[in-house]
Amino acid sequence: MSTKTLTVVATFQAKPGKEAELKAALINLVAPTRKEAGCLNYDLHRLPADPGKFLFHENWTSKAHLDAHLQSPHIKTLLPRLGDLAMGLPEINLWEKIA
Known about the structure:
The relative contact order is 0.31. The longest helix has 16 residues, at about 20-35. About 35% of the residues lie in helices and about 35% in strands. A hairpin with a 2-residue loop joins strand 2 and strand 3 (about 50-60). The chain has a domain at about 15-85: Alpha-Beta Plaits. It has helices spanning about 20-35, 65-70, 75-80, 80-85; strands spanning about 5-15, 40-45, 50-60, 90-95.
């Protein structure tokens, strides 16, 4: 297991007319995720120029903690709803802190 901090940047694009629903669904992830082991921060942002574009900026103490997060009940509840709320799956990039 890596001991380096892992940063996740995940972006979501709401379907037209689903911006408020996607926003609410993503906000519902914040509180339970911040309580998870290994979560250093889990912050949700919205692009001012496009209110249907959302970004999570997350930091985890390890890949194992991130993997556990992805299996959590609140994430598993959201996944089936993404087809109705978002334009496809989120774009997810993993970053490793090096300095």
